[in-house]
Amino acid sequence: MAKKMPLRQCVGCGEMKGKRDMIRVLKTAEDQICLDATGKKNGRGAYICRSRECLQKARKNKGLERSFKMSIPKEVYDTLEEEWNHLEAE
Hints:
This protein is of the alpha+beta class. It has helices spanning 52-60, 63-68, 74-89; strands at 7-9, 16-18, 22-27, 33-36, 44-49. Strands 4-3-5 form a three-stranded antiparallel sheet. The protein has a two-stranded antiparallel ribbon with strand order 1-2.
């Protein structure tokens, strides 16, 4: 029998996709927001499709704010976009 793929909802577009097709954004215990490329770090996770559009949509519709129940400053999104660039470059 095939193993069940865990599905996660993108906070940008709202689509359900396999966990492996997405990037996890993490809120640590210290309320820091960062990308979790491994998907194994401790903290509250929200998922975004591997497309820049979804990151921008999440920024516009405040998807991460809703997931983490906190306001997220503009600089954090800028940092996420920079980290995103590094992931795409690899």
